[in-house]
Amino acid sequence: MGPNRQRKARLPQRGRGRGGQGSRRDGAATRPPPSLLSQAQKDMVLDVLHHAVSGGTVPVPEKHFDGNSGKRITFQRNVPLTPTKTLQKLFEGLGFPPDLITQYISDLVEESRVPSFNSIVELLVEDGPFQAFLTDSCFELFSCMLWAFREEKEINIIAEEGDAILEEELETLRCLFDDSFIGVKNFEDGDTDDRELYFAFPTEDGKDVVVIVRIPDYYPADPPVIIVQPRRRCAGNLPTPAVLPADTKELPTAERRSILDAGVDAINGFVGEGCLVGLLSSVRGVISSINVSNDVASKRPLDVERQKISEEKRELEAKRKGFADALSKVQDYSTSPKEDTSDACILPAKVELSTIKYGEDGDDRIRKEFLTIDETLNKTLKAGWESLRVNGSHQRSREQLPAFQAREELRQAISCNRVVVVSGETGSGKTTQIPQYLYEFMCEEGVGSSANIVCTQPRRLAATSVASRVAKERDDVVGGVTGYTIRLENCVSRRTQITYCTTGIILRRLQVDKFLGRVSHIVVDEIHERGVDTDVLLILLRDLIKHRDDLKIVLMSATMDSVLFAQYFGGAPIISIKGRMFPVQVFHLEDIIPMVNYSPEDSSVYAKKPVRKDERCHNARKRFTCVDSEEIEDMQEQAAEVRSLAKTINASPKTLETISRMNLDVINYELIELIVLHIDTQMLIPGAVLIFLPGMAEIVHCMDQLKSNPRLAGSCVLYNLHSSLGSSDQHGVFQRPPKGKRKVVIGTNIMETSITIDDAVFVVDCGKVKENRYDPKKSLSQLVTVNTSKANCRQRQGRAGRVRDGYCFRLFTSAHYEKLDDHQLCEMHRVPLEGLILQIYSLNLGDEMEYLRKALSPPEECAVRSSVKVLTTLGAITHDKHLTSLGQHMSNLPLDVRISKMVIHGAILQCADPVLTIAACLGVRSPFLSSFEYQTEVEGVRRALAGQNVSDHLVLWFAYAKWASVQYKNGVSEGNKLCEKYYLSLPSLRQIQVTKQQYERYLYEAGLIEDKPTQNAPNCFLYNPVVTLDDHLYESCGAHLNTNSGDIKCILACIVAGLYPNIARVKTIFDGRGEGKRSKITTHDGSEVLVHPSSVAGKEKAFASPLLVYVDKVKTSTTFLREVSMVTPLQVIFFGGGRLEYLPKFGELVIDDTTAFRCQSEDATLLKHLKDQLDSALRQKINDPSKTWESTSSVVVRAILKLLKDESSSAQRFVISDHKQPKGFPTPPVTPCATGASGSEDSMVSGKVHSA
């Protein structure tokens, strides 16, 4: 359907009347509760539960999962079928998977290979012209089954080696299967057709089944293929491959499928090896267990056969009824507990999430590792340092750094104190020199073997680049004395004694060794940034030095607030190091505009909306001209702004007028281009230009803008610098440009500290930065663009003037600068605390509130309590505050806690790639263009991509997957064309892809991906991409974890698992005046909301399912839900959280304190026990990801997915009750500062995101 599709409205439910369902205040339901499950669904659930109770001994009929199971192919004579439909039914009857057949026939149509026939009789004539086509198709379909589940593996076997393997196997086959061997074909030297082997194996009732094995020329590099058929009389020695009308009667579909599946498993178990012996052994074993009773051959009367089938059905129904009666006594809501329930069945014990035990015997409180002492090595290191001090190629330049002047002061301070604070201006050399000085002090004192100095950096790039610089200064290589360790990458050796690492790495080390017993010094750099990890590390270190007399700590800051940190550590001494700086001249916006002669055009995106006095709206009916009041206000505001600017800015009237017309909320890439052009053509001063921008998308936009200028494209070398770049890609920015070229580095605030681009002379500061902020109306941590602080501006300014007088261009006015905050807001006060508290539990640091009171700036208590409730609801910690196995996995994934749970479920339910894509989009940005001028087009594309799925989350996946697939198959240029066609942002897509790669590595590191990676390059996915028969591309996590990636219902179930309890209820209200109907959407507190117009659900008049899951709730002109997906009741029942409870008095199945569905007791019993089994299966996998699911767990998950798949036709049977509870919520919404208050009496379904 097109972008403006119109769906049919859901018909009103019968029997409800205008008044709706009865109120719970009446004491009982006024009508009998509806049945939520069809009889077929009830039978399936009963059989699955019976299977679980029996420990897997009672089988579950395959017909529950595959509607074609056991069917024989039949065609109605009077129903005309097209050739493609005829082939579809025929191949299904021959045992091949329906989805695979559909794709295969589509390929036949595309290649014009569909034969022309008038009837099935004509098609199946024994000696007819179509038999060769049918047998070849059977071979090809089996080949498709093989490759759908075959591991891609590089095989280097030449044809001669393959022939030798085959010859050896043939001798073995003749020995093992002499009685069943019929003969061979096409084995002579002159034959060009594929070689074939013929075998006949007897079934249990003595019927022979022929197995024909076709062997390709490059066997075993290429796998063999097989077809099976009943044995018939033949004119020659070998049976003729054919598909005849009686085939599916003599060998039914289910039996055929079991033989084919056995063949696929056997062949794929020997990739690149000889597999014929294993293949024929497996096939013979399956065939020997088949009992095919032909009606004609046995000559049994038809009524006897029917009577037998009826008896089997009655027997099965009796078993089901007996099990259902026993099951109801496990929890019979109408029976008194005193009644005898001895004949009740015993369900498997419910598996709970395991809790993490931390050294209950006190073992983790004992220091086990100590500093190394090696006298021989001490002498060697001392001599080595003396030689380097005299002969080192960089020693002279090191001594010219300002930090060298404080070397002896540092020696004195560190020898007398456990903690020292170093305050060093930009360019002082503190990051590179202080760790080296500490190492050199120990070498000089003759204890160099004990030196193990760890220096933390807030970013990956800083750790790798500084390690490289220090190694160079010591005439060494990275990985020698100096190395680095960052997540999923390290470069250290046994010689390494100075290690630069990210803050998260040392926190992870503290999980393993609380004492850091082998570490002699910890240097914490950039403490002024006040990241959450850094603040937590400071608490840990302050506690650690109480237990480690031999540990020294150095805290380094680039700002003047060092006193705060010194007081935190009990009055530690402060060493101040002045920077080696040349003067830097600062230009603000009022200076830049006349310098480059800039004036934005009225139509420019960098200008405010133009307002002309002659604009009028003509009202024809009233025949007068009315002025838009908003336009008058805009004109008045602009004039007032010019007057205000004149008071605060010393600039010409023309400049003031230009500033008043500029949209200062957006980054002006035109102005950046003019500044760089002015530097390159007017100032003519050599040196690199650093341009500070908030993020990757802005960097790419700026690069495109500069490249579009022919002068700059020819004279400048452009680099980008951001944290998502690989280590090897980042080092190019530190090299000098070719002669005659100017280096322009466009980067984020990663360039502010720690790293030094030593030829920088010019800085362009946009005045913006991306920070992790908690939006008061959201419950997800997001990167938002905010104004920098004065400290940030000074840091950026300090990047210039390293080699000569510098110049800083600020894209904001001096008045704006004066209004900026002095320092960045402490991260602990601007982000949700779930991740921090989860880290406290993973480190076993005790009570979270008591521990966080030790912080430099403790968070508010209500935020801590709310975060604990969130983690309890998600299952990360227990009610008695113990970390669970799920919480441990979540702590290993550095993501928002809800996104972590979503991703974990995606891996366990084997739909990893779509869920990773959606998680990356939620964590980064939408893949669509955000420009206002394309808003209408983007909305149309989003609706077109959604199709019949009312889901913003799926649209994100569809859009990204379409780009990734086109780029993978047709190249980058075609991917770029697709971006233009679908209004996609290429920078955003690339950032999403990089984020997916990181998430995949996190899953692998957490043990949730068992397969060994096939690729180890730093900037790619760990596994080869998976391309399905229907042309879907799955980039990440490999084939096994994408088994269900094509199942939309499974993907949405993972989203529900992560975002619950953010669920809203949709209720259709009929207008009493006959003007139609509308949807009323309410959250758990009873407040009415709307779906945001940008959502694909924004214009829906009616919904097929009454439930919506959403990411956040925002209030503008009204309250809107954003990032919405329609979900089904069963998805909420099975994946929504807490235990189910049935209230027989009201006929309600209660999900939580705000959500309930009306249903019958029988349905409630089945759903409750099935959910218990699902929870147990999921928890088993979470507790031990390396453990393969038992057969019972696999069957339970298959049953759940089958119910979800079939639910679309039955969702209207679900009636949501007005479930009202006087008590508060045990499962509060996921917000950092919920108060725990209960919802209003009219609340229906959970899902509000509270403001802080």
UniProtKB/TrEMBL annotation:
Record-linked SMART domains: DEXDc (SM00487), HA2 (SM00847), HELICc (SM00490)
Compositionally skewed regions (Basic residues) per UniProt: 1-17
Region of interest called Disordered, as start-end residue ranges on this chain: 1-36, 1215-1252
GO terms for MF: ATP binding; hydrolase activity; RNA binding; RNA helicase activity
Record-annotated Helicase C-terminal domain positions: 671-844
Cleaved signal peptide residues: none
One Pfam family of this chain: RWD
Protein name, as recorded: RNA helicase
Keyword presence, RNA-binding: yes
Domain of life of the source: Eukaryota
Primary enzyme class: hydrolase
EC numbers on record: 3.6.4.13
InterPro entries: DEAD-box_helicase_OB_fold, DEAD/DEAH_box_helicase_dom, DNA/RNA_helicase_DEAH_CS, HA2_WH, Helicase-assoc_dom, Helicase_ATP-bd, Helicase_C-like, P-loop_NTPase
Residue ranges of domain Helicase ATP-binding in the record: 411-578
Assigned protein family: Belongs to the DExH box helicase family.
Assigned keywords, A-Z: ATP-binding, Helicase, Hydrolase, Nucleotide-binding, RNA-binding
Domain RWD, residue spans: 168-290
Keyword Glycosyltransferase: no
Gene3D superfamilies registered for this protein in UniProt: 1.20.120.1080, P-loop containing nucleotide triphosphate hydrolases
